[in-house]
Design goal:
The structure is a homodimer of 190-residue chains. In chain A, 30% of the residues are buried. The first copy, chain A, has 9 helices and no strands. By secondary structure, chain A is mainly alpha-helical. Chain A is 76% helix and 0% strand. The interface between A and B is medium-sized, with 26 and 26 residues. Chain A binds a DNA duplex (30 and 30 nucleotides) through helix 2 and helix 3.
Chain lengths: 190, 190
DNA sequence: AAATTGACCGGAAATCTCATTCGGTCATAA
DNA sequence: TTATGACCGAATGAGATTTCCGGTCAATTT
């Protein structure tokens, strides 16, 4: 029973955060949307930020699941990195909550939102780092610092998928995969 | 004679922009510093922004010169890219004017400053692009889109030199050169 | 007595008002 | 013809005032 109510609150809060962002959703509103008194929320969550964090935690879990699903062990390492990262970044563009959050970070810089986006990036980086470590162990790629490598890979990927679009025509998915392979895997030397 | 005065104004303005930033330097102040009536400035420059632009143009020229100086034709392509980019980014950290400008962009977002920083980045990108084109012609590196390649190179470089420092120990210059070679030139595949 | 609620509190943020600043002009002076 | 600085109005900022909202807790319900 109290389990139901917590779920209700989480769903209402998710909906509201997705629709209005973090700052613009009030606890009163969440209470109304979940048919609960405002005080009740505070029996399940210490404060607004913890409620937010719990929502983000499940968002991250969802993203991880989506990435895992995109991976196919019969394909090459680089192709799987591509598929995983593409799924994650696609997720970011398709889900209300992430869209709203990135928007809020850019145009308001809400501290709680910035922190949460940091967590999200850390999660991606960690995910990637594990994949890189595994690839080194298996002898699929050259020996290197997995953390730094994951960091560079993500930067290159974001550069190709988002940053390039700021001043140029967007690149197609296939092209991005090709470029990623060329720059990161094969290298430019002959 | 009028040449002298224009120079005086440019020097005074450069000093003031370096010291106080774009927004906080007033035309009155530039006039005082250059021993000239305020109106006189407007006989040489259409407005504050054009005065600023002219200063930035010479800043860019200086950076280009510094980069050229760092380049040694007897060294490899990647090593020269490293030396050139390092010089440019070092320049950015050592010169009052650029320091102040990047600070002003970050914490105030002054439009004129943002635009000028865009110009600066374009100049770097173009400089790099030319080097890449040349390297392709000479057959030193694999065939590729020079603009996109310059873009990715710069992203990786900035990632290694600035972004990594946000959450980790800074990398040494030598290490950066090595990593740059590993990631961009040699690639990760075996 | 355990759980739920919403009126209430205080500080943060938004809004409004009014004073100041500064980019740019132009009549006057050199 | 060239140089100047007093002057203009728009934009900015400081200060005062109001509104808003996260979080608490005494009262109420179960």
């Amino acid at each position: 029973m109290s389990f139901d109510r917590k779920q209700q609150i989480l769903e209402a809060a998710t909906k509201s955060f997705s629709l209005f962002g973090y700052k613009a959703t009030t606890m009163e509103q969440v209470a109304k949307l979940s048919n609960v008194g405002k005080g009740t929320i505070y029996t399940f969550f210490k404060n607004k930020e913890e409620l937010f964090d719990e929502i983000i935690r499940s968002l991250i879990a969802e993203m991880k699941a989506a990435a895992d699903e995109a991976i196919d062990p019969s394909l090459s390492f680089y192709e799987n990195v591509h598929r995983g990262l593409y799924k994650i970044l696609e997720f970011r563009l398709k889900h209300q909550l992430t869209i709203k959050l990135f928007q809020e970070e850019k145009e308001m810089g809400t501290p709680a939102v910035m922190e949460v986006i940091g967590q999200l990036e850390d999660a991606i980086l960690n995910y990637l780092k594990d994949k890189v470590s595994l690839a080194i162990e298996k002898g699929v790629i050259r020996e290197c610092d997995p953390e730094l490598t994951a960091f560079v890979m993500l930067k290159v990927y974001i550069a190709l998928i988002f940053d390039w679009e700021q001043h140029h025509e967007p690149l197609e998915k296939e092209k991005i995969a090709m470029l990623f392979e060329q720059y990161i895997m094969k290298g430019l030397s002959l």
